[in-house]
Amino acid sequence: EISTRDCSSDVCSSDLKGTHVFSERALRAAIEEQLAQIRAEGLTRPNADDAAYYTAVFYHQNGYAQAEVSWKIRGSELLLEVQEGNRIQLGAIGIEGNPSISSAILLQLLTSVSTERLKVSKNRLPLVTADLEAGAGRIAERYRLEGFLDVSVSAPQITFEPGGTSRSEEHTSE
Question: DSSP string of the chain?
């Protein structure tokens, strides 16, 4: 729970409870723009909703695919309640329909957004759905560069597995 009080002043005092994965500093940095907007405009329902949304985005970008964030306004206080869930590791990846470009190259393109942003090895990648979708876009672009202008790359099909892993399947059609 992130509690933000007295946001009309230059600094919001806060109380952080119930979040275990990230420090208060990291969470505040992730939503600094939303906190600045609250300081400038006051605590409103849309601003509270934005703060909760971007807190969830931060979790999702770090592999907490099932994290949920809700918000409450109590007087002049914003409470963000975070259900972190488990960090989901990207497990098996299957790429189908790719006779012209090797699966190894396509796999690298699919996971490159996460490996570049998070600076982790391919063997320890967290599941970040938005990064896989961006990787699918990189695959489509690679095919277009190879002359397959009508290529179709489906959105990743993600299956959650027991034990905190996931499976992703990518389908291409030249």
Answer: -EEEE-TTSSS-EEEE-S--SS-HHHHHHHTHHHHHHHHHH---HHHHHHHHHHHHHHHHHTT-TT-EEEEEEETTEEEEEEE--PPPEEEEEEEES-SSS-HHHHHHHHHHHHHHHH---GGGPBP-HHHHHHHHHHHHHHHHHTT-TT-EEPPPEEEEETTTEEEEEEEEE-
